[in-house]
Amino acid sequence: MSTPISMVRLISFLAISLSGCNDEQPQQGVICTEEFRATTLYVPGALLTESFTIRLSNSDTIRIKGNADFLEGYYVVLDDNYQAKLENQQDNFRFIGKRGNEVVVQENYVFKADQCHITKVSGKN
Prior knowledge:
It contains 2 helices and 7 strands; from the N terminus they run H-E-E-E-E-H-E-E-E. By secondary structure, the chain is an alpha+beta fold.
C-alpha cells in the first residue's frame, strides 16, 4: 500500500516529466525531457553581422534572436523552437553567416525532430 507521500512524489514526477512536451498537441504516451536542445557552430574571428539558417526544402529562413549574444563566436544553427515545424520529419538546412555584405560561412546540416526535440543528423560541430 502506498503512503500519501509516495503518491505525491509519483504525481509530481509525472507532472514534471510531462511538462517538457509540446503544449500545442497533447501526445499520447510520450514523455519528453525538460531539456532545450540547440545546435551551435563556432565561427572564429570578428562577430558576424548577420546569421540565419535556411530550410532548403521550403526556403524557410530561421533567424535566432540574440544569436550574437549567445556566446562570443558561437551561433545557434537550429534549436527546439523549430521542433513543431519539423516534427516526425528530416530535412536539409544551411547555416549562413555574414560580415557586412560578405558571406563568410556556409555550412550544411541535416536535422530531424520527434515529438519533443530536434536532433542533428549530420553537419559541422
